[in-house]
Amino acid sequence: MNQIGLVAQSPLDQFEIVPLIPMNIGNFYFSFTNPSLFMLLTLGFFLLLIHFVTKKGGGNLVPNAWQSLVELLYDFVLNLVKEQIGGLSGNVKQMFFPCILVTFLFLLFCNLQGMIPYSFTVTSHFLITLALSFSIFIGITIVGFQRHGLHFFSFLLPAGVPLPLAPFLVLLELISYCFRALSLGIRLFANMMAGHSLVKILSGFAWTMLCMNEIFYFIGALGPLFIVLALTGLELGVAILQAYVFTILICIYLNDAINLH
């Protein structure tokens, strides 16, 4: 019964933020939490990967497996930037490429790290994804102002709109534009949280059935167990897909700011 009670915990327990190193500075409370730890682990893994690729056999005529992986990710994001962002020369596009590449790799590694048992899915917390999406949204808006000045506001009012409808359309377009930052964070958070919760619920149910001594319950657990395995594979695909979707939306929004679409 202890084993059954152990897996009967809420599926939301895996998203609990736990202070690891509490810190108080005056009236402000800071703490080093498990999301902070796993974000540092993600960053550390990324830096180690780049270090070994560039220092250990980097530039070889026949690349090793790790070098091939990094080159594949590099070329993938580079082609994405070239295809999705128009109206700029190749050299100017290179200015945005490092930021987009780092964002993609950070999200990809965070999502995949969350698939490891007893780890923590950083991107399953709304405040983290919202902070990331809002910072990118502000940066894209600054790029639009740098390129167009006050003419950047012209995207709020398409040409040929009747004058009586102009105030309503401007308000609608402004809300739609600002909602991009919110939707970008919500999409990533909701997909990661929902997928992990579903896997937890079904795996807990299957384990509870397997812990029963009766053969009927054991046979009945095989169905949910196979579903859990299938969902785990699906969730792995979702982890990769969400990093791609987040990145391609950044490129689309950046293209809109540059070309006033």
Automatic annotation (TrEMBL):
PROSITE patterns, per the entry: ATPASE_A
Residues passing through the membrane, by range: 37-54, 95-114, 126-145, 225-254
SUPFAM superfamilies assigned to the protein according to its UniProt record, in alphabetical order: F1F0 ATP synthase subunit A
Bilayer disposition of the protein: Multi-pass membrane protein
MF terms in GO: proton-transporting ATP synthase activity, rotational mechanism
InterPro entries cross-referenced by the UniProt entry: ATP_synth_F0_asu, ATP_synth_F0_asu_AS, ATP_synth_F0_asu_bact/mt, F0_ATP_A_sf
Alphabetized UniProt keyword annotations: ATP synthesis, CF(0), Hydrogen ion transport, Ion transport, Membrane, Mitochondrion, Mitochondrion inner membrane, Transmembrane, Transmembrane helix, Transport
Gene Ontology terms: cellular component: mitochondrial inner membrane; proton-transporting ATP synthase complex
Localization of this protein: Mitochondrion inner membrane
Superkingdom in the source lineage: Eukaryota
UniProt-listed Pfam families: ATP-synt_A (PF00119)
Keyword Amino-acid biosynthesis part of the UniProt annotation: no
Cited PANTHER family: ATP SYNTHASE SUBUNIT A
Family stated for the protein in its record: Belongs to the ATPase A chain family.
Subunit relationships: F-type ATPases have 2 components, CF(1) - the catalytic core - and CF(0) - the membrane proton channel. CF(1) has five subunits: alpha(3), beta(3), gamma(1), delta(1), epsilon(1). CF(0) has three main subunits: a, b and c.
Functional description taken from the UniProt entry: Mitochondrial membrane ATP synthase (F(1)F(0) ATP synthase or Complex V) produces ATP from ADP in the presence of a proton gradient across the membrane which is generated by electron transport complexes of the respiratory chain. F-type ATPases consist of two structural domains, F(1) - containing the extramembraneous catalytic core and F(0) - containing the membrane proton channel, linked together by a central stalk and a peripheral stalk. During catalysis, ATP synthesis in the catalytic domain of F(1) is coupled via a rotary mechanism of the central stalk subunits to proton translocation.
Protein name: ATP synthase subunit a
